[in-house]
Structures
1.
Amino acid sequence: MATPSLHSHTFFLLLAIFILRQHLAVAGGCQYPPVIFNFGDSNSDTGGLAAGLGYTIGLPNGRSFFRRSTGRLSDGRLIIDFLCESLNKSLLNPYLDSLVGSKFQNGVNFAIVGSTTLPRYVPFVLNIQLMQFLHFKSRALELASTSDPLKEMMITENGFRTALYMIDIGQNDIADSFSKGLSYSQVVKHIPNVISEIKSAIKTLYDEGGRKFWVHNTGPLGCLPQKLSMVHSKALDKHGCLSSYNSAAKLFNEGLDHMCRELRTELRDADIVYVDIYTIKYDLIANSTNHGFEKPLMACCGYGGPPYNYNVNITCGHGGSNSCDEGSRFISWDGIHYTETANAIVAMKVLSMQYSTPPTPFHFSCSR
């Protein structure tokens, strides 16, 4: 029996996601898609950095789906894009993008590349994103109460109350701590403060009427080509990833899981779903050939060639960098972020409910 080609593998994968999306629509799983508010970093930034700071994110970013750069750090769609598509929703616009007019009826993306949880008042940390949300909500409700023609394009009080609030942040807090030369014990000591900021954000959103929360944990930081290329003293696990980085990520995830369990007890009328992104992504590395990927620890777009194709001075999209011909054969796009194909697989597994606690379909937030 012939082995399926990598191209056919990708085709059937994306077809599976399409079929799942259609199944949800036909089954009435999401007759009225929810408003979505997303808070996070580059893993879910759909153009915020480019819009907010004018930072140039050019091709080859965006080449495989959008055929142009959209400010996403990938060759195509991100996990959040696939999740939105699973609800038959249009993709989220970044809050800071002035050129989208007032097209925020379906939600807002506050995520920005490089965002952390601490320190609290440095753009664009989680607390700043939260302040932006509060300003947006106040202004939207103000307009909705007037005769302004824009009121029809604003999110209503009910829209805010029934919205899905997504949080995907924390990776940069851990990564930045290591990059500052802190020891493993010092990095771990900082984790409770990060968890506390995320908990505070969720409680603030709850006080504002939010009742549906979708929280992603952080991925295997030690498997990123960027980290592997820049850390000179390497203690690697059996799959070639940095053990200390991944151990810190797992401790963060344990704390995040515990926090979500606590909040379910404290906020009994809220739905708080914790999603194990780490396990999904680590499986892509550990079983890369089963998923049709080559060289799981090497970036498609970068400089330097094997084993990691990452150079901090010549990063993807900048002069001297090069990109692979087929991003679908790679997990890592630029040494930090995933290719569209890898993001598609992660999204499909998220939608399977096997990695969420409690097991919850993503369309749980849909109005019936």
2.
Amino acid sequence: MEWVNETVVREFVFLGFSSLAGLQQLLFLVFLVLYLFTLGTNAIIISTIVLDRALHTPMYFFLAVLSCSETCYTFVIVPKMLVDLLAQKKTISFLGCAIQMFTFLFLGCSHSFLLAAMGYDRYVAICNPLRYTVLMGSGVCVGLVAAACACGFTVSVVTTSLVFHLPFHSSNKLHHFFCDISPVLKLASHHSRLSQLVIFMLGVFVLVIPLLLILISYVRIISAILKIPSSVGRYKAFSTCASHLIVVTVHYGCASFIYLRPKSNYSSSQDTLISVSYTILTPLFNPMIYTLRNAEFKSAIRRAMSWISNPFN
């Protein structure tokens, strides 16, 4: 075969921030502060929801799962990125790269379907309020999360298998700061149109199908809100959905730009910038979007702080 005398790639070298060599220590400090703040914020959200019985509702159950998912998602990518910013040799083993890709795809794909489940929850709450507790019982909520995880697991297994069964023999220079699909595919010695098509179709399945479900939910939600006679009632109903809509827009906007573009439009510098936004900034802002606009959650945090300061009262 034509690559018999070529070296098989056993590790990859990250070049994601190589053009910013003089700023890497500053980037380390900035990203570390943002990462710690993200971990702290998500920990507060999860612990508040678990400890406060008033928040034991489907909406907050999904929010807790979302926060847990985003914490795990950043843990897969950011610690390694922080180490590499200070390291001379920014490498990852072939197996380590495959594990990283599988894990972040699993969490990212599950995140897409989880947002669709949260959209369905808002649809039931607004369009069928009298049957909400029946339609969104604990079994249904757990089932929706399990289905989201099952879809994410399936897509990540198939995609990772397709990518890492390709031959890698020449360059191991990865123009990114983690093992994303497009940068790794670019290093493959060759890959069939079929594998590219399957990976693209899986991206469509993960992004387009949940987004269509969310859009259908919101068409019905808006229709129901417009029928509410009072302006105060309409505002209150819409405000419960605004946070979810913002998160959906950011998530699907970034993901679609990265994964649904033609390969000819691939740009490593653009992808690095967008990837920083959805691996560091989005997990930072999402909890804040959901909680700072939510009076009920802010009240729960005040109750938790009061209990911590006076545990025996």
